[in-house]
Amino acid sequence: MSISMIWAMDENGTIGRDNALPWRLPRDMAFFKEQTLNKTVLMGRKTWESFGGKSLPQRNNIILTRDPHYAAAGAGVIHSLEEGLRLAEQEQLMIIGGAEIYKLFWSHADQLIVTRIEEVFAGDTVFPALDWSGWKIVREIPGITDEKNPYRYRFVYYERV
């Protein structure tokens, strides 16, 4: 089974504002695309809707929702953690949000890929308060700042201890 989680957060753990990212970092978006391309991405309904209800190209899009009647063009729909775990037995699963979905899959993930932004942003969604003691950093890559990517950030890979 292979489950990775990927997200970006600021120093306070903020991951969203009004169902969108509170910052603009094109290099992080390119990194996200590179990490998830040709993989199965699993997300909650609100995350799906934050993309305008459009599937992420060149990825198998899966939405996890409690709504038994939910349907989405261009994406598969599942309704439980167990269905997600069955998917992960067949292919690498990339959990891409939101907060409730990260919390649900936390104890099943074997890799975390986190963009840590060294800034504080206003937001209404934070990464869940979870136990990080079972994780170790295995790789860290400093982000490149420029006029389009004005914040200091780094890509941090974690593996379960």
TrEMBL record:
It catalyses: (6S)-5,6,7,8-tetrahydrofolate + NADP(+) = 7,8-dihydrofolate + NADPH + H(+). Keywords: NADP, One-carbon metabolism, Oxidoreductase. Pfam families: DHFR_1 (PF00186). Pathway: Cofactor biosynthesis; tetrahydrofolate biosynthesis; 5,6,7,8-tetrahydrofolate from 7,8-dihydrofolate: step 1/1. InterPro entries: DHFR, DHFR-like_dom_sf, DHFR_dom. Residues 2-160 form the DHFR domain. Its EC number is 1.5.1.3. Signal peptide: none annotated. Belongs to the dihydrofolate reductase family. Key enzyme in folate metabolism. Catalyzes an essential reaction for de novo glycine and purine synthesis, and for DNA precursor synthesis. This is Dihydrofolate reductase. It comes from Paenibacillus zeirhizosphaerae. The lineage of its organism: Bacteria, Bacillati, Bacillota, Bacilli, Bacillales.
